[in-house]
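Hey, I'm writing a tutorial for new members on how sequence and structure tokens pair up, and I'd like a real worked example in the thread rather than a made-up one. If someone can provide the structure for the chain below, I'll link this post from the tutorial.
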Amino acid sequence: MNTPAYVSLTDLGKRFGVGPRDVGLWLKALGLRQPDGRPTPRAVEEGFVLERLLEHGGSWWLWHEKKTSEVLAGMAEQTWPKIVKFEDFTVIRGT
């Protein structure tokens, strides 16, 4: 059986040449992460994320590599204004 690959935000960031914090902010802008960094119910329901329980409490989330990468790539292709402001960063698109 071929199971989908789930990866960390760091691994996703490497695909886009950014750090995990940037990927986390993008996922928040797409409605897949909550302000506190936890996945949204939508992310869980649509299979974007897999929760791993830590040995001493808490959780760590892994993201479906293909599905999440496609959504992030699609975000870049959308027809957005040249300047898009998010919570902690601004995207300035070239012409």
